[in-house]
Amino acid sequence: MNVKALLIDDEVHILNNLKIVIPWEDMQVEIIGTARNGAEALDLVRLHEPDLILCDIRMPVMDGMEFLREVRKMGSESEVLMLTGYQEFEYARIALQHGVRDYILKPINYEELEDIVRKISDIIRSRKMEKTMAERRWGKVISLAYEKMMFDVIMGFTSGNASYFMVDDEYQSDQLVYTVLLVDLDGYAQRTVSWTDNERKLWNFAVRNVLQDALQDDWLKYAVLQTREGEWCVLLQFYKERYDITETDVERWATTIQQAVKEHVKMTVSLAWDSGPIPMLGLAATYKRLQRVLLLQSEVEQLVPVDESSTARQVAMVSQWQLVEEIVSGMKQNDRQKVEHGLHDLQSSLLLMSEQSIVRAEQFLQYVIIHLLREMRELELLTTQEEENMWNKLQYCVSVKDLLTVITQLLAQTNEHAMNKKSSEMLMISAKDYIQRNLSSDIGIDEIADYLGISCSYFSLLFKNHFGETFVEFVTKQRMELAKSMLIMTDKSITQVGHLVGYAERRYFSKVFQKYTGMTPSEFREKEAPAPSQD
């Protein structure tokens, strides 16, 4: 890791000696420029941002002390080594109080100077390494928070407008747009019905890892969200004013993903995508469109471009799908009346469809059953044996009547299991208690769902229905309110408060706090601190 150095002295022979006598290359130090006075040097500092500056004190136009003051005003963190004569010794002492690392007296002892430069260069490299590691940690923190938030958005649990969400360091959510690719393992539901939970988790984990790595070479900002077993959304984020993605770009990314899964996991996937640009508030609807289109693909390894206009052409049964979504929504909310109402309307609608095309109605119902089975598995509303029995029945269903009978039986079993499940209210009381006891930890949906003994999807739905906000919104609010109290009532540092409310990175804690309150933690503490006693 090279260190960039700037040499400043009004005496030409000293500049030449500094360049020639000191073994800069051996020390992995690059001389980025030389200057005869502070004014010249300031331009070089702005242009090159040197890590190390060797500077004389007495120079014409702008001396070393004035130069030092200007450099610090610019916010430069360069290490400064002052060169000084005996008569400027007091200046050197003052310079040390203004952020100068060290000084060396003239005439210069070049061996001594070399030793000092080596030591300072090592300090600079260590600091750069620490900064690099901190940036990597920061990137990881942001990535995890982003994934948690975007899962809620794409599943339709939140509007995506919460002011304390960290979407991007510089841009507000309305300045960002997305491209969405939906990845589905071909025949997943039927192929994995006899697998154990651990086997399914292992394969899903393996595919997710492949998806996370597949597009890294393209330097894209994207998140991989598992929306249900065997299905993932790949969200690619762009700045609205810089969006220049073509259909060819997205097809290439889809092909790359498809090939990567086949090569590394030995499974085939089909993909549907909407290249966008899609605003955040349009992601949930886009996900549903892509899901419907993929469900209707009878072949494997499909690559299907989809947009809002083409969906109407590809899916002629939009109204019927809306009824299916009403049934699924009723299942998720444990609303038996909503399920029965949706099923009744679907039966009536299918009678009209059958009059036009019995084959199309039968095909549609096949897809509906597959969709319902996958949703029920996600919500743990069927046992493995019951699911296997349903797949066996499906093989012998040849008419619309038979298929509707299977759907009716499925929904009846759903109601039975929902009634036997633990009370949703008791589950949420336990969840709230768990959150309060673990606010200082990096808790996630998967951890709490496992603690409660339910699936992540079921937990997310219960949580949203019970508290009226998503898990991320709820936990963030709890943490911020606790942080506000601690900043007022204790003298703990900002970093300590952040740790105690679950943020290992002070930088991330400060940014979330500022989005939530409109002030940094320091500003909040100063504003809200109790007035000193007048006694």
In CATH, the architecture of the largest domain is: 2-Layer Sandwich
- CATH topology call of the largest domain: Alpha-Beta Plaits
Main sheet, how many strands, which sense, barrel?
A: 5 strands, parallel
Helical element count?
22
Low-confidence stretches: none
Alpha carbon gyration radius:
32 Å
Task: Produce the secondary structure layout.
Blueprint: E1 3-8, H1 12-21, E2 29-35, H2 38-48, E3 52-56, H3 64-73, E4 79-84, H4 89-96, E5 102-105, H5 110-154, E6 176-185, H6 188-191, H7 197-214, E7 222-228, E8 231-239, H8 247-265, E9 269-279, H9 283-295, E10 303-305, H10 308-314, H11 318-333, H12 336-356, H13 358-378, H14 384-395, H15 400-420, H16 424-437, H17 445-452, H18 456-467, H19 471-489, H20 494-500, H21 506-517, H22 521-528
Parallel strand pairs: 1-2, 1-3, 3-4, 4-5, 9-10
Antiparallel strand pairs: 6-8, 6-9, 7-8
Helix pairs in contact: 2-3, 7-8, 11-12, 11-13, 12-13, 12-15, 13-15, 17-18, 19-21
